[in-house]
Specification:
mainly beta, four-stranded mixed beta sheet, TRAM domain-containing protein
Length: 47
Amino acid sequence: MAVCKREGFVIFVDGVPERADVGDVVDAEIVSFGPDRNSAEAEYVGN
């Protein structure tokens, strides 16, 4: 799981490969938002 912050959202990304290092840029698609709309869950789609 990767975590980042973008435009005020904390984003949790599932499915990031183990070979990814801290600071790597990955593409992810938001699949849901948290109840307070200040966080989001995403799925890895590539890099």
